[in-house]
Amino acid sequence: MQKNIRYVIFGCAIALTLVLLLQFYWITKYYKVNQNDFEKEVNLAFEDALKKEFSLRCDTIQALIEQRLMDTTEFKISSEYSNRHQRLMYTISNAHNLKDKFISSSFSFNGISTPLLPGDTVLKRMIARKFAYNMRTEDLENHMVYYRTQNLGNFVDSSVKKYDFDTSRLRPVLNRYLAERNIRVPYKFYFRRQDSTLNRGFNSKQTTAYPIITKAYPTYTQKPGQQYVRAMFTNPFSYVVSRMGLIFAASLIIIGVVAFSLIGLMRMLIKEKRLSAIKNDFISNITHEFKTPIATASAAIEALTNFDVLKDADKTQRYLSHSKNELAKLSLLVDKVLSSSLYDSKQFDIKPENIDADDAIQKIMEQFAAQPGKTVSWTYNNNAGTSNIQADKLYFEHAINNVIDNAVKYAGNDVTINIQTHLKNNFWLLTITDNGIGIEANNLPLVFEKFYRVPSGNKHLVKGHGLGLSYVKNIIERHGGWCSIASMPGKGTTLTLAWPV
């Protein structure tokens, strides 16, 4: 039986370990998948943010070019029909040097074919807007500036430098694209003079602090050492866990349920194993207890039958008396075993009455002190201020009798018992201290269990069957009280019985 239990416990432990490892492996793999998705998302967001930031810069510079062209102190815009091109041509001249000009032949002005008359600011703005847009697509988006007129080229060049790549403008754009993807992981920008699409050249300290690094993109800036930029993200644990959501929670719940079930099963098996050991010990003890009175009575009857003891009246009376006493002990033992089932089922009734505890305790102690075989010394001090309590007298005496019986049995030849009473929190506390052998700390939580006896191997140095303290505990609890025990090996034991008042 014990071997089978060990196999079951071992199997449960292996099953629990395998479930935990499987769930851990599955969650780890799923975590890595979501981490890879995170890396893809931040790369897309970073690329979109760079494009958007550049587009915003181009919008700004385009608007500045349009506004600059409308400044008559800087530029003159005129129109003239070209026989060569067979269409209307627009000319933009430097107001400070009219020879510094260019004609719209290099630009597309589709949709505008009206001569520009003096004072026509609406058409002039249309021309300026069209030119600024064409200059954006041909110059700015190709990251170069053509000097079509000197002052326009200088203006565009200074505007491009003024609105050069800047992370202070890139960061809010990137934050918006990340927020659209529900990403709120801290990050920083990282610049290099030269870079590649591969994540090379990063030391372990950097990759530990920032495990997710985006691809490198050119900034087209003139600032030294900032030709390429990346975004470096800290560990995206919170994002990944939020993505895993219910699946992660479900896995934890499954692990918890399986672990709880298997641990509960193992605890039940261990408890059953302990109960089996207690049962076997009880059977051994009770068998020993039964054998003694049976053997004594059998010997007396055999003497009466086979050795002419009946002819001697004194011997006959003595042997009959021994048989009667032993059978009475046997009957008492059987009653206790049968009664233990009754106490467990809570079917026994108590009938509280006003009793004199002092009188009951003194009578019990006097009976034990008068028994032969051991010298019993006892003291009793009532510090409660009263000896009258409400309790069932019979069960009250049974409880005290069992405690004192244990104190006498587990002490040496000279027994010392000290009994104290006092009131505390509406309970009448009865404290019984002996000078017995004491109990190990690991056995104290079990002494009130049915059939339990402190292990002593297969030796029966002290008669008992493990019902005494279990019986006492049932009596006390049926009265609405409680009991506790304190003990040290070689120092004795103290039992406290609390009766409600």
From TrEMBL:
Organism this protein belongs to: Mucilaginibacter calamicampi
Which reaction(s) are listed as its catalytic activity? ATP + protein L-histidine = ADP + protein N-phospho-L-histidine
Keywords recorded for this protein, A-Z: Kinase, Membrane, Phosphoprotein, Transferase, Transmembrane, Transmembrane helix, Two-component regulatory system
Membrane-crossing ranges are 7-26, 244-265
The EC class name is: transferase
Q: What is its EC number?
A: 2.7.13.3
In the record, what terms sit under GO molecular function? kinase activity
Protein name in the entry: histidine kinase
> Is Transmembrane helix set as a keyword in this record?
yes
Q: PANTHER family this protein is in?
A: PHOSPHATE REGULON SENSOR PROTEIN PHOR
Keyword tRNA-binding applies: no
Histidine kinase domain location: 285-501
CDD domains, A to Z: HATPase, HisKA
List the InterPro entries hit by this protein, alphabetically: BphY/WalK/GraS-like (IPR050351), HATPase_C_sf (IPR036890), HATPase_dom (IPR003594), His_kinase_dom (IPR005467), HisK_dim/P_dom (IPR003661), HisK_dim/P_sf (IPR036097), Sig_transdc_His_kin-like_C (IPR004358)
